[in-house]
Amino acid sequence: MDFSFTEEEERFRAEVRAFLDQEVTEEFHQELEERGETEFSREFTKKLAQKGWLAMAWPKEYGGGGATMMEQLIFSEEIGYHHAPTGGHRQGINLIGPCLIVHGTEEQKREYLPAITAGEVVWCQGFSEPNAGSDLASLQCRAVEDGDYYVIDGQKTWTTNAHRADWCHLLARTDPDAPRHRGISYFLIDMKSPGISVRPLINMLASHDFNEVFLDGVRVPKENILGEKNRGWYVSQTTLSFERSGIAIPAGAKRNLELLVEYAKETKRNGAPLAQDPIVRHKLAEMAVDIEVNRMIAYRVAWMQHQGLIPVYEASMSKLFGTELIKRLGDIGMQILGLFGPLERGSRWAPLRGRIARACQFSLGGTIAMGSSEIMKNIIATRGLELPREPRP
Amino acid sequence: MNLDFSEEQEMLRTTTRDFLTKECPKTLVRELEEDEKGYSPDLWKEMAELGWMGLVLPEEYDGMGMGFMDLIILLEEMGRNILPGPFFCTVILGSLPILEAGSEEQKKELLPKISAGELILTLALTEPSARYDATGVATRAVAQDDGFVINGTKLFVENAHIADYIICVTRTKEGASPEDGITLFLVDAKSPGIRCEVMPTMGADKLCEVVFADVKVPKKNMLGELDKGWPVVQRNMEQAAIAKCAEMIGGAQAALDMTLAYAKERVQYGRPIGSFQVIQHYCANMWISVETGKNILYQAAWKVGEGLPATKEVAVAKGYINEAYKFVSERGVQCHGAIGTTRDHDIGLYYRRAKAAELAFGDTDFQRELVAQQIGL
Amino acid sequence: MDLGFSEEQEMLRTTARDFLDNECPKSLVKEMAEDEKGYTTELWKEMAELGWMGLTIPEEYDGMGMTFLDLVILLEEMGRACLPGPFFSTVVLGGYTILEAGSEEQKKELLPKISAGDLILTLALTEPSGSYEPDAITVKATPKNGEYVISGTKLFVPDANVADYLICVARTKEGASPEDGITLFLVDAKGPGITTTLLKTIAGDKQCEVVFEDVKVPKGNILGELDKGWGVVEKVLAKATVALCAQMVGGAQAALEMSVNYAKERVQFGRPIGSFQAIQHYCANMLTDVDGSKFITYEAAWKISEGLPATMEVSMAKAWVSEAYRRVTLLGHQIHGGIGFCMDHDMPLYFKRSKAAEPTFGDADFHREMVAKQLGL
Fold this sequence. Notes:
The structure holds three protein chains of three kinds. Chain A is α+β, with helices and mostly antiparallel strands.
């Protein structure tokens, strides 16, 4: 066993950290907050592209950096720690890009991949529908052939960044009579196409990241289908061997914990520093332990992948642990800030510019999005422990 | 022992629920979150006509002379509906201290106006030290000419921006103990020297920063005795904590009802999600929390209403219900899935209220410390 | 980075597991819980022949010269098997203290005997205060006629009933700080003035009260430097804490496997209970706790093996594993239902051990306080 990184890896971490320290400053965060884009920055995405880090995990022949799992892990950890915005490229780099690399035609690859690696286009994902959440395969959005086109009608929801995106990768049903998983196709759609309308879904923090997307007779050229017709479900299950450690979550939590520790040391309550209150010490220490356990659970995923092993339930465990952890941290953070906890940015009394109150509300989505905690536990139980599946009624 | 509500009380609950469902829909709640005043004067008037502001005030002051338990029912329904506005601060934090400590003259002047809905009051207690005990009171009132001059900063003052009077808790003497030397003043909220600013909060609950700079108050505006104000505050804090619990339980019940309805109706994998065992268990746990919370609440509220010592019961109730409301609304969001995290969905309103209410009149750790003292630690 | 074990380590694990499966069935574990000595000399000898007692003792002292991390693997398997007996006391508490503080002469005399299984040792550290802090050391050693005389009571001394030597942590001076003035003595456990009483515990582990009444110890039996023993204790405690975590991890893994197997087998309502979502989620929680416990323990063990500073990691491990092991055994019991509550079932063995291990070498609160210090609080 060896829990350390190589010297070369440590050098890489130092380089990333120096870059992020310089770029992702308090002022930068403030600017994004004022623009209502806490999770999104085209400029930042471009800067990562210029450093050659944006597509670091992609194979070199597609303009990627061919980075090792350990380098990817380090990079994700630093990005998470700095709370750097990834909304400008997450979809392109992590989801549609890999699908294109595996399933795209040469033409599709030529057309779409360079723009993704350069950080020039923003993609959104048209998967979820009002009646297809955890049970995605029940989606109802229809695509019907019409000459050289497919005509798409339906509604998508929870479409992050649809209002900012240039392109959308979307699942639609092309054979309503086939079994659920076998009648779905994968489309690449220009968001400027006539018939697309986007309606904001404002989240609990009053910020606009999600949308509903309505498709009303949207004509998509046939060459914009990815993979074979009716094989879209399987295309969507593609994952390149990117690191799936989920390390960004405990890394981000670590940063918030450090801020809370500083706050506790600097803030006097009842005549003494909060840091001397045994309850406060206990709560912060408990979080520190949880974060370290989370880090180990995440490291294991990356290490397995580094060894060429395929995580079975381990990535689900990391997602489950991390998203539940930041809920506890949000709650505990608010408790430590006391009456000042709910104060938002804009009040001179708001500690840490209201970031704990934001983190607390934001954390509610974590255990729901990208596979809820319940789904993660189902996976851990059935795949990790091989418990029998629940019989279908 | 009688653990049932009377017929009149059940009727009060029904009329209140019907009225609020009709007159205070969630669209209005959301609108008022963004509104500068944070309440609807029309609704306020209607509530006054129903006699709500004077519910527990004696009839001689134009009140309805009802009991504290009746007020609890009303507050439960208000919490259920998330009624925005200055009811809580006017009635609980304003009228009750006046009733307890006011001179006959003050009562005669102010209470009928409160009953009529013509006055908005609030209590300015907490300061940047953010504590609910006497040590936290640093705002000073110094005798000068025929009155007093107040200087200091109060924080988290509910609805001060629309209040007519602020009951300001001040220090008039450095006494032998922190409790000694505290005096309450009825301060005209429009007095020169008062600067009031609404603080932005995640609950959008109109908490204010109120700065007193050489604010002159006539002697006759002293509420209760000089230097002996703390017991009044202490008693009011108990009333306020248990009243807040009532609001919270009402909110928790609403969050539970909403979640149950959604779990029965939302279909995934070909069946209502409420037929999945884990969702069933979440809901069962939520229900247990709400029911337990109610029992604890009613017991404590009864004691407070009867004027019996209730320090322990109130602390147990607030400590338990803080966590219960948070738990129920958080599980509620989880059961609702993504839709529950949107600004437009009602379940999130309850979650944000739960977080805000947890801190008011003592958070869980504060209450646990009180309980620890009460059990002899 | 390498989060896997080497081939040799995997082999060590397999042999240990096979050996213990054969030689240490649960029937023996239960028998030994009732037994006065708490171990069998046959099994002890066989373990010595496998080289386990000298696993991490350098080869020059007839040991195998392996690392602390290797020992952790062995301990994990022992925890899994609920191996009774004085292995932990002798090897971890005794062996490491001698390695850390012993003179060359002491090492030459004692370590080969430990390796050979000819010697049982233990550490007499805690006293009736039940604390692991240096100020809890009140047992006094006073110089007299070229010897030391020890008086006082040690409590929770593991395996003192069968030990040949006790390493007694005694106070030799009232120093400027509580750490200053503590000395370690190698005491013949059967010497005059020593009364050892077995404590009755839930896990049937052999914890003892050891009363020292004017026990004479020659100067030559001081381990390490006079008055400077606490530094040694701290180092040994760090290792012992992680070693205990390793045992707990092994126990938790066994409890998990037993519960999952039962959930697959046990049929109710016409289907295995493991197909019910609630049971599945319990099992998922257990696996998460077990996996988390493993890696937080391995991380600390690796740091110790490498001689890196590990104060934070050691405390994080014990804080986490103490509670995780308890959660795992509690859920395991819940899954097993009534049958798991029976005395002859194996589940209670693990639950009892989790409760016994929780406070040993500091409970979760103690270690969270250590973490808080490390965080700079």
